Amino acid sequence: MKKWLISTALASSIAGLAGPAVAAAPTPVDSDLPKFIQNACKGFKIEGEITGEEKVLAFPDGGFIVIAPNQEVTLTANGNTFTSVITGSFHVSTDAEGNTVFTGTGRNLLTRSNGLFLTIGNISFTFDEKGKLVEEFALDGPGQVIDVCAALS
Predict the structure, then answer these.
(1) Opening angle at CA 84, ends 141 and 54, nearest 5
(2) Could you tell me if residue 51 is inside a domain?
(3) Any idea of the CA torsion for 26, 145, 85, 1, to the nearest 10 degrees?
(4) Range of the domain at 51
(5) What's the pLDDT tens digit per position in 104-143?
(6) Which residues contact 134 (CB under 8 A, 6 or more apart)?
(7) Is 50 inside any structural domain?
(8) What distance in Å separates the CA atoms of residue 28 and residue 53, rounded to the nearest whole number?
(9) Kind of pairing, strands 47-58 and 72-77?
(10) If residue 35 lies in a helix (H) or strand (E), which one and from where to where?
(11) 33-81: per-residue pLDDT in tens?
């Protein structure tokens, strides 16, 4: 998913939430799709919404976890509908080279250069210090990857 959720997580971290993890309630989410999801499939635009909750748990070392309890996405295009829970989480850390490593677990909606995918299981991807993607998540790794663009075409 979650480039949108990742952007939220990064913004929250930069905004100063890098204190110890706190047990506050997750924030409700009820929003239209971000543009990068709407335009993720070549040849057609996706419409839909994301509902549920999200929370960023920040840690003193600068790492954080993004959780999405009860989150669901409904997408439509070309007369087709794709609905899924996206209750996965992301663990975000910095490696020895200063890269930001995102490790996703569970069910996540993610974009790649070649489309939009629901991942189920464990995935990871990495950005360098300048925000450039240096390692995309694998489409053939452990777990399951569903091509959402194909489901909506």
Answers:
(1) 90
(2) yes
(3) 40
(4) 2-11+22-152
(5) 899 999 888 889 999 999 988 999 999 999 998 876 667 7
(6) 99, 126, 127, 128
(7) yes
(8) 4
(9) antiparallel
(10) helix 35-38
(11) 788 888 899 999 999 999 998 889 998 988 889 888 889 999 999 999 9
